[in-house]
């Protein structure tokens, strides 16, 4: 009986950990894409400045 309770508790912890990891991964991905977009805008501005 106690083993079943431990397994259930471990499963709940695992699901919570996976959810936390997924949220963290989404946050990191949004930062990466944001930085890439900002760099692209800066590159476009720099390119226009060089050509003009």
Give your account of this protein's structure:
The protein is mostly helical and 52 residues long. The chain contains 1 helix and no strands.
Mean pLDDT: 93
Give the topology string: H per helix, E per strand: H
Count of helical regions: 1
Number of strands: 0
**Main β-sheet, in a few words?**
none
Judging from the principal axes of the Cα atoms, what is the shape?
rod-shaped
Strand content: under 5%
Unreliable stretches: none
The computed structural class is mainly alpha
Span of the ends, CA to CA: 77 Å
Query: Radius of gyration over alpha carbons?
Result: 23 Å
Helix content: over 70%
List keywords for this structure.
1 helix; 0% strand; mainly alpha; 52 residues
Write a brief structural summary.
Helix content is 96%, strand content 0%. By secondary structure, it is mainly alpha-helical.
């Amino acid at each position: 009986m106690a083993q079943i309770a431990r397994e259930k508790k471990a499963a709940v912890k695992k699901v919570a950990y996976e959810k936390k990891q997924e949220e963290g991964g989404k946050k990191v991905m949004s930062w990466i894409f944001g930085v890439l977009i900002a760099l692209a805008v800066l590159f476009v501005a720099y390119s226009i400045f060089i050509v003009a």
